[in-house]
Automatic annotation (TrEMBL):
NCBIfam families: pheS. The gene is pheS. Mg(2+) binds at residue 249. This is Phenylalanine--tRNA ligase alpha subunit. Keywords: Aminoacyl-tRNA synthetase, ATP-binding, Cytoplasm, Ligase, Magnesium, Metal-binding, Nucleotide-binding, Protein biosynthesis. It comes from Virgibacillus halodenitrificans (Bacillus halodenitrificans).
């Protein structure tokens, strides 16, 4: 029995097998237990001899079992340690960090620039009333110029704002027709356009408004000149061309000078060496008086620009959809711009 048991213990591969062997030899129905049970049938003289032998066998088996069990536990522990080992000399995996969106950066850059010139940053609602989006801006119902901006209407009176100009009217209202207003307003705007490389049904604008006594067109030109040079470089020139907006009179569009490029992939500065970047003008007397300002006393200028267009010019982005499709390869290029 002993030889057989010790051999089996030696071959056991895990603690479960070891437990089975223990039961088979030392358990209630185990073979050694059977021998001890049979003692009654043996003669008095033989009993101590057999008894001693059986005890020795039990001791031997138990000792070997314990020894083997310790060994197996050690092996299992080593295996686990090996599996969980960490090679601290391996180079770490870089953690992926995000960064601000190119558009966010441009808007913040423009904000900082105007804050530096004494403008306050304001906001207005994207769901706007027909009144503020159009009527208060000298665009009564049925005015043909309403078609300049194809509109998403929600109800008869509610719409998605087509520009940030309603914030002009809202701010002047808030300022009671008394105090000077000097603010910019960045925000999202919406138009019923078919998306392509230069159109998006949703894009952003930054509105500017300066109303006070004696504000003139040369104030407008001066501020826009500073803006263009700080944004694009000191060597840039600006020019104002006559234009039309119902809420400004006179109205202008501003171009900045650019180096002419040519050929495939050139979308930035074709042909003339000038590129249009914003609309502006002197606030129309009707807009001033509807908002409670006396146009005999107060004058003002306003402008509206598209940060996408500015970012496209500054960084040579040639498709406005890049700002909204969020291809990580596009966005990543500008994390350190
Ligand atoms: N709101 C005009 C547009 O979206 C831009 C503009 C703003 C023009 C302010 C003049 C003054 O086209």
């Amino acid at each position: 029995i002993q030889t057989e048991a010790l051999e089996k213990i030696g071959q056991a591969a895990d603690t479960k097998e070891l437990q089975e062997i223990k039961v088979a030899y030392l358990g209630k129905k185990g073979s050694l237990t059977n021998v001890l049970r049979g003692m009654g049938k043996i003669s008095k003289e033989e009993r101590p001899v057999i008894g001693e032998m059986a005890n020795k066998v039990r001791e031997a088996i138990t000792a070997t079992l314990n020894e083997k069990s310790e060994k197996l536990e050690l092996v299992a522990l080593e295996k686990q340690l090996e599996k969980e080992a960490i090679d601290v000399t391996l180079p770490g995996r870089p953690i992926k960090v995000g960064g601000p969106h190119l558009l966010t950066k441009i808007v913040e850059e423009i904000e900082d620039l105007f804050i530096g010139m004494g403008f306050e940053v304001r906001e207005g609602p994207e769901v706007e009333t027909d009144y503020y989006n159009f009527e208060a801006l000298n665009l009564p119902k049925g005015h043909p110029a309403r078609d300049m901006q194809d509109t998403f209407y929600l109800t008869n009176e509610l719409l998605m704002r087509t520009h940030t100009s309603p914030v002009q009217a809202r701010t002047m209202r808030e300022f009671d027709g008394q105090k000077p207003v000097k603010m910019i307003c960045p925000g999202k705007v919406y138009r019923r356009d078919t998306d392509d490389a230069t159109h998006s049904h949703q894009f952003t604008q930054i509105e500017g408004l300066y109303v006070d006594k004696n504000v003139t067109m040369s104030d407008l030109k001066g501020i826009l000149d500073v803006f263009a040079k700080k944004m694009f470089g000191a060597d840039r020139e600006i020019r104002l061309r006559p234009s039309f907006f119902p809420f400004t009179e006179p109205s202008v569009e501003m171009d900045i000078s650019c180096k002419v490029c040519g050929g495939e992939g050139c979308s930035v500065c074709k042909g003339t060496g000038w590129i249009e970047i914003l609309g502006a003008g002197m606030v129309h007397p009707n807009v001033l008086s509807m908002a409670g300002y006396d146009p005999e006393v107060y004058t003002g200028f306003a402008f509206g620009m598209g940060p996408e267009r500015i970012a496209m010019l500054k960084y040579g982005v040639n498709d406005i959809r890049q700002f909204y499709t969020n291809d990580i390869r596009f966005l990543k290029q500008y994390h350190n711009a």
